[in-house]
Design a protein that fits this description.
Largest sheet: 3 strands, antiparallel
Strand content: 5-15%
Shape: flat
Pfam families: DSRM_MRPL44 (PF22892), RM44_endonuclase (PF22935)
Strand order of the largest sheet: 3-4-5
Helix content: 55-70%
Structural class: mainly alpha
Protein name: Large ribosomal subunit protein mL44
Oligomer: single chain
Organism: Clavelina lepadiformis
CATH architecture of the largest domain: Orthogonal Bundle
Number of helices: 16
Radius of gyration: 36 Å
Number of strands: 5
Keywords: Mitochondrion, Ribonucleoprotein, Ribosomal protein, RNA-binding, Transit peptide
CATH superfamily of the largest domain: Ribonuclease III domain
Number of domains: 3
Family: Belongs to the ribonuclease III family. Mitochondrion-specific ribosomal protein mL44 subfamily.
CATH class of the largest domain: Mainly Alpha
């Protein structure tokens, strides 16, 4: 069975036939093409071992991906199993909406402004967007005034700007599935396009189910952005809280605040701590600590403002979700119900006037 070096060198065909014959007679052995190789592994030992060329191929593919970068994102509409009508129905069921399919299509379609054929669709899209933005602005303002009645106008404006910020609305739309349903020129869509589509869909819900349904939609998805947020520290961020506290005390005809250092620790160390308390006459307002006396005084003023505006951690949580009671809903939707009744009456009057 052994083949000499001369036969291996001069007769490659005989070597190939000999290797074939050996493998056929004893399949448990895996012989190398080099007949003189003693490192012969059995078939059981070779199982589970990746081939040598696979490692080189995997490394080259990894290097190629690092050079070329990731693949560009592709919309789901490019898939063969895509059904736009079914996706619209699933979107409404998922968000508990009862909206006209044509209005949703108009809200999800970004028209091409350069073409004359899309002038009508452009006007419809712009009308939905403008009306939806106006409705969202009015509803959020009314909600903030109802939920935080003692908050000053500057604070209410800061909260409204935070809730209706373009990046925040785009984040909501992206997580609600607008990115897959949106028909736009460039993919992925920008934050501006997502925000406009979200506001247009609000107006589509308003026209189909009334302002109460649109208000409920905003209450379920836009207002919960306040969860876990400190209005004074994370959203409003006033530059001089002490001056605001002075103005509030003057409005209530109370003595001006007085800061007192109540205790301190680690003065001669790298991390000192100072605790400052604020008093209005003999009445205690708040207390806070900081790395320096000015920082502790500023934080104590913030704590006093939170108590004044009833937006502190210990105050009542902003009503949203399951915490909304019937009394708050009545206050919140009362102007919307009046608006809905007026719109219904106007439509009925128009229908009566058209009839002969």
């Amino acid at each position: 069975m052994l083949l000499t070096t001369r036969i291996v060198r001069d007769c490659p065909k005989r070597v190939a036939s000999a290797i074939y014959w050996l493998n056929k007679k004893s399949p448990a052995l895996s012989y190398s093409t080099n007949v003189g190789n003693s490192a012969i592994r059995t078939a059981d030992e070779n199982e589970g071992r990746p081939l040598r060329w696979k490692r080189v191929w995997a490394l080259s593919m990894k290097r190629k991906k690092e050079i070329e970068g990731p693949d560009p994102p592709k919309p789901r509409s490019t898939l063969r199993c895509w059904n736009y009508k079914a996706e619209l129905s699933a979107f409404q069921c998922r968000l508990h909406l009862n909206c006209s399919e044509q209005l949703l299509k108009d809200a999800f379609t970004e028209p091409l402004p350069d073409q004359d054929d899309n002038a009508e669709s452009l006007s419809d899209y712009s009308d939905l967007q403008d009306c939806g933005r106006k409705f969202a602005d009015e509803f959020v303002s009314h909600y903030i005034s109802t939920a935080f009645p003692k908050l000053p106008s500057a604070g209410k404006q800061a909260v409204k700007s935070f809730l209706l910020d373009e990046s925040h609305i785009a984040y909501l739309a992206r997580n609600l599935g607008y990115e897959d349903l949106l028909q736009c020129v460039n993919f992925p869509p920008s934050d501006e396009v997502l925000c406009c589509s979200f506001l247009a869909s609000v107006e589509a819900i308003n026209r189909s189910g009334g302002p109460v349904a649109a208000g409920r939609f905003l209450l379920d998805f836009v207002i919960p952005q306040l969860v876990g947020k400190d209005i004074l520290h994370d959203i409003w961020k006033p530059n001089d809280p002490m001056s605001l506290l002075v103005e509030e005390l003057k409005k209530q005809s109370q003595p001006l605040p007085e800061a007192r250092l109540v205790r301190q620790s680690g003065i001669n160390t790298v991390t000192p701590v100072f605790f400052v308390a604020l008093f209005s006459g003999k009445r205690f307002l708040s207390e806070s600590g900081g790395e320096s006396i000015p920082l502790a005084e500023t934080d104590a003023a913030k704590q006093a403002l939170k108590k004044k505006y009833q937006i502190s951690i210990n105050s009542k949580v902003a009503p949203m979700g399951h915490s909304v009671d019937d009394e708050f809903l009545a206050k919140l939707f009362e102007p919307l119900l009046g608006l809905y009744t007026e719109n219904v009456n106007v439509k009925q009057n128009k229908n009566i006037s058209v009839q002969p």
